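DM between two lab members

TW: hey, do you still have the PH domain-containing protein entry open?
JB: yeah, one sec
JB: this one, 527 aa:
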Amino acid sequence: MNDTAAEIEAAGEAAGPGWQRTHPLAIVASGLRGLQQSILPIVAVMFGSRSMDNAAWIVPLFAGGIIAINLAVAWLTWRRVRYCVGANDIRVEKGLISRSARAVPYERIQDVSLEQKPIPRLLGLVEVRFETGAGGKDELQLAYVSKDEGERLRDVVRDLRDGVADGVAAGVADGGQDIATGAAGEAGPSGQSERSKQLFAMGPRRLLLLGLFEFSLIAIAVLGGAAQQLDFLLPFNLWDVGEWQHLVSGPGAWLMRLGWAAQIVGMAIAIAVLGVVGLGTGVLRTFLRDWDFRLDQTPKGFRRRRGLLTKTDVVMPAHRVQAITVGTGLLRRVWGWHSLSFVSLAQDAKSANHVVAPLAQLEEIAPIAEAAHFTLPAADADWHRPSRKYRLDKALMGAIPAALAGSAALVFIPSVLPGLALFGLAGFIIAQQHFLWLHERHALDARQIISRRGWLVPRLQIANRVKLHSVEIAQGPISRRRGYADLKFGLAGGSFAFHGLSIAEAQAMRAAVLDSIASVDFSRLPR
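TW: and the structure you got?
JB:
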């Protein structure tokens, strides 16, 4: 459902010159969201009033009162929310009892994203998020406006931020509302006429495969938590071991009489059920999160859309992508599946990592990386390993305490099993550090720094040398005496480091990267 011209005009006049209100249907969306939080109290009243004579009217009266209160609060809240697109900033005023007014300058806005949760989506509404890079409560949110209005706001704010629409800023100061409408220009409110190129998409089959890889037992934990909170609804005490023993000795006694073989089969069936629940949970979460996953390259940047119930629409400008991360999993790597994430100044679900290809082959990832001005390492890349001393010291610091504890266990504990287990742990730590050293690599080319880390689950990280903020050589007491150091790179939105480099190599890499940073005048870079 979209705003009509009359609704927009009426809302603007009611809010004041240059000010606008959110969509009137936001009252319904906020009221229904508040009603969601009241379901448990209504259920509690329903069960608590079963023994009362007048229960037939208590529950409807209680539920009706809660609905009326939610709608009243939602209406009052809507009346107290207004926003204005100014010449230099966007302003939002809201608050029912405690009034707040925020003005965010356009230069501080990293990105503008749209989010549609199930109820607002049914009503054709979106929540607009103005991301400042500060995260958490410092982000500016506007809920709810129509989808067309949200996309128009996104285009207007981006144009004003990037200085594209020179006439827009002057016009906003004069009148405001009609300027914002014209800022969308020829692209229109939905941006459909913009030139775009699809870089990646996932259909149902790819989603199903991704869900199978994302095995999760979160459903077991949720059911356990719900059982603990709602155990008063069950006919017996769920956490009483004696009652479970009584149940097994009654109807389940036949299983105990079948012997150890049947018990093993029963355990196998229970494990299989847990596996099915884990796989089902992973598939369900994946379909809810990544349904209709699409990544497009537009003149504004990389546009990612996904979600079944909660739909998100995020645009990441290419110049704000600081680094890329190519990851995989223990099973995924067997079939060549990887994921690609952008490390960006903007935030995505309280994380600076934007997943732009959750499950893809390297030949699918390479074009996306090139569109973001990154290049995957070639087969003949000049890889370097960290210092042998670094991994040796790591192995000794982990293995020596385990070996000492194992020796003490052999002396003071009659059984040899704890001591042998601790010695086995020490051996595992040494082997682990050796394999990590074999598989850890770093490289430096003309434009990028590259890190490949991990043994069972390798991860490739690439950053642009020019976009780094600083380079630091860090040493601790042991590394100073042993002659190696960590090279830490200042990266907006993420972290990047080469560990265990020799001092000479660390100094040479730092000088090369600093030369790249100093060779660019950042004040003249295109925004």
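TW: got it. The first helix runs from residue 5 to 15. The CA atoms of residues 12 and 20 lie 5 Å apart.
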